[in-house]
């Protein structure tokens, strides 16, 4: 169980900071360090609170419940359709972004490492099939693969921070460019970077969680409310 908890934690962390590692620096570059920190902290708190509310709902449902069944149980048929449409719309947007970006990266790596040149369409199709097959096998396979990828991600991020650290100056940290409209453009990027809620039902099912497993999250949710 402890191994599953660790793997589930890494899945949530990987979902949260996956695309955000690239998107957040670009989105926040024009609004300054201090404003970026405040914006990210505020949206993290919002997304963490809503995630805890989802965990609360899972206390009153079977561990295999999906977002669809949770919405039907709590909100009824009308709420079920609204919630399902909203989640499908979000998942479509996220999948389109990941497939487009991942397919391009996959093609570049194939050509760089193996000297194989593929068309963007074919590379994107192969990338999508590989990811789809991994996900289809089950959460356990995703867990194992994610542990390897997350470790590599941490190594890469640590290396980048080590190389960039000498270039960090007080002037960069205290400057507030606040170019017109950039803070508005940064909000949806930061918001989606902390969006891991679609993974919660799969994680609960993977852990075969029961109400006693939600005791600590419940206390945290009460703390947020107070």
TrEMBL record:
Top-rank taxon: Bacteria
SUPFAM superfamilies the UniProt entry points to: MFS general substrate transporter (SSF103473)
Coiled-coil region(s): none
Signal peptide: none
Cellular location(s): Cell inner membrane
Membrane topology: Multi-pass membrane protein
Record keywords: Amino-acid transport, Cell inner membrane, Cell membrane, Membrane, Transmembrane, Transmembrane helix, Transport
Entries under PROSITE patterns matching the protein: AROMATIC_AA_PERMEASE_1 (PS00594)
Transmembrane feature ranges: 39-60, 81-100, 112-136, 148-169, 181-207
Protein family (similarity comment): Belongs to the amino acid/polyamine transporter 2 family. Mtr/TnaB/TyrP permease subfamily.
PANTHER family: LOW AFFINITY TRYPTOPHAN PERMEASE-RELATED, TYROSINE-SPECIFIC TRANSPORT SYSTEM
UniProt protein name: Tyrosine-specific transport protein
Record organism: Vibrio variabilis
